Amino acid sequence: MAKDTKLLMTFPVTATSHLLEEYRARGGYQVLHKVLTQMTRDAVAKEVLASGLQGRGGAAFAVGRKWAVINLDDGQPHYLCANADEGEPGTFKDRWLLENAPHRLIESMLIAAYALQVRNAFVYIRGEFEGPYQRLQGAVEEAYAAGLLGKNILGLGFDCDLVIYRGAGSYVCGEASGLITSIEGKRGYPRNRPPRLTVKGLFQRPTVINNVESLSNLVGILDMGAEAFRKVGTAKNPGTRLISISGHIAKPGVYEIEVGYPWKRLIYDDCGGMMDGASLKCVIPGGISTKVLTAAEIENLNLDNNEVEAAGSSLGSGGMVAIAEGTCMVRLLQVMLRFYHHESCGQCTPCREGMGWLHRIIDRIVAGQGQLEDLDMMVRISKLNDGNTICGMGDAAGYATVGILAKYRDEFEYWIENKRSKYEGNLECRRSS
Ligand SMILES: Cc1cc2nc3c(=O)[nH]c(=O)nc-3n(C[C@H](O)[C@H](O)[C@H](O)COP(=O)(O)O)c2cc1C
Ligand code: SF4
C-alpha cells in the first residue's frame, strides 16, 4: 500500500480477513446497524450525494447523482447490481476486494439497498473469477446464517436478498446494459439509451449499477460522514482509489492511494520502480481503453482524474500498466486490437467491422506487408466509432489506437519500412508480445 496515505478501503490481509468473524471484530456491520436505526433513506442518499463519490468503474460518474434519478415513490420494484465483471485488461482491484473484503461489499450493498428501496440485489461477477466467487459465495452464506441478509435483517424489519450471478467471460457484459441483459438470461448485448437504466433497467424496472469499489466506499462514507470523506483526496475527486498496477514494474499489485497522490511516487517509491532497472517508457493509466501517457507526460502529474484528463487521458478503472523503454508499441497495439476484435459483440457496424479491419491491418503490418497509408487509415477507422456505437467499447478501442499512433508513429513507420520491429531481439520486445 502507498505510504502516508489515508487508507479507507484496504487493511492488512490475513488468512481469515474475508470471514464474518474477523470482519465483525473490526467493527463490521455496525455502520449498517447505525444506518437502519438512526437514518432515513433520504438521509443516506443525501450523505452519498454530499460525499461527491465518483464511480470507480471507469466513467467516474457521481454515485449520488445516479441514485437521485430513482423515484422512491413510483411503487415499482427497484434493483441494485454490483458490477464485479472487471473485464478491463490491466484491472484487478475489484478482485482484491472480493477476495479480501467480501463482507464490506455486502454491508455497503445493504446500505445502498436501504436507501434505494431495493428488495433484490445482485452481484454480477465475471465467470473466470473462481476464487473471488468462492469467497463471495461463502460470505453471502455467512451473512444469511447470521441474519444479515434475507428477511428482518438485524431484527430491524429490513428485508433484502442478494443473488450472485456468474458471467460467462464476455468483456461487453461488464458494460452496464450488457450486464443487465445477461442477468435477464439473454445474450449479453449492450442496449441503446435512453431510457436510462435508472428509469428502465433490469426487467424494465429502475436499476442502479455501481462498480464493486464504488459501492465498497459506502461503509466508510456513512461511518465517517460526507464531510470527513471530502477531506481525503482532492476537492473535485474525494476519497482514495485502488490502483492495480502491472507490466514491467518491480512490485506489481493493488495499491490504495489518496486521490492526488504523486504518480512518480507510486511507481518509484511504492512499487520499487521498473523491473531489472529498466527505464519507464510510458503508462496506460486506467485500463487499456485509456490513452497512453509517456514517461515525460506523467513526470509532474498527480493521480487525480482532472489532472489526468487535462493531460489527455483518464484514470478509468484504475488498471495501470507500466511499460518499459524498449517495448515495441506495434506489438502492444496488436495484442490490444486482437482483444477488441474478439470482444466486439457485433451489433454496431463501425465496431463490428472496424475492429476486424484494424486487427487485419496491424497483422498485415507485423507480417511485413504494411504500407504507410495504413496508419492514416487506422486513425480514420478508429474515429468512425466515436459516438456512433451503442456502448463505449467502440470508442474506447479507437481512443487506445489513436493514442498509441499519435505518440509512437515512428515505430510503426520503422516496421513498415524495415519489415521488422525497431526493437527486434530486445528482451522487452518479446515480453510485450
Ligand atoms: C465495454 C465496457 C466494459 C465495461 N466493463 C466494466 C467492468 O468490468 N466493471 C465495471 O465496474 N464497469 C465496467 N464498465 C462501465 C459500466 O458500464 C458502468 O459505467 C459502471 O459499472 C458503473 O459503475 P460506477 O458508476 O460505480 O463506476 C464497462 C463499460 C464498457 C463500455
Ligand atoms: S460498440 Fe461494439 S461491443 Fe458495444 S454494442 Fe456496439 S458492437 Fe457491441
Polypeptide structure, described:
Helix 3 crosses helix 6 and helix 15 packs antiparallel against helix 18. Helix content is 44%, strand content 15%. By secondary structure, the protein is of the alpha/beta class. The strands form 3 sheets. It has a 5-stranded mixed sheet. It is globular. It has 3 domains: 211 residues, Rossmann fold; 84 residues, Roll (Ubiquitin-like (UB roll)), CATH 3.10.20; 104 residues, de novo design (two linked rop proteins). The protein is built from 19 helices and 12 strands. The mean pLDDT is 95. The two termini are 29 Å apart. A hairpin with an 8-residue loop joins strand 9 and strand 10. Flavin mononucleotide binds next to strand 5. The site of flavin mononucleotide has 24 residues, from strand 5.
What would you say about this model in short?
With 433 residues, the chain is α/β, with parallel strands linked by helices. Helices cover 44% and strands 15% of the residues. It folds into three domains: 20-230, Rossmann fold (3-Layer(aba) Sandwich), CATH 3.40.50.11540; 241-324, Roll (Ubiquitin-like (UB roll)); 329-432, Up-down Bundle (de novo design (two linked rop proteins)), CATH 1.20.1440.230.
Low-pLDDT residue spans: none
Number of helices: 19
CATH architecture of the largest domain: 3-Layer(aba) Sandwich
Name the quaternary structure.
single chain
Question: What ions, cofactors and ligands are bound?
Answer: flavin mononucleotide, iron/sulfur cluster
Helical content stands at 40-55%
Tell me the name of the CATH class of the largest domain.
Answer: Alpha Beta
**Main β sheet profile:** 5 strands, mixed
Name the CATH superfamily assignment of the largest domain: NADH-ubiquinone oxidoreductase 51kDa subunit
Total beta strands: 12
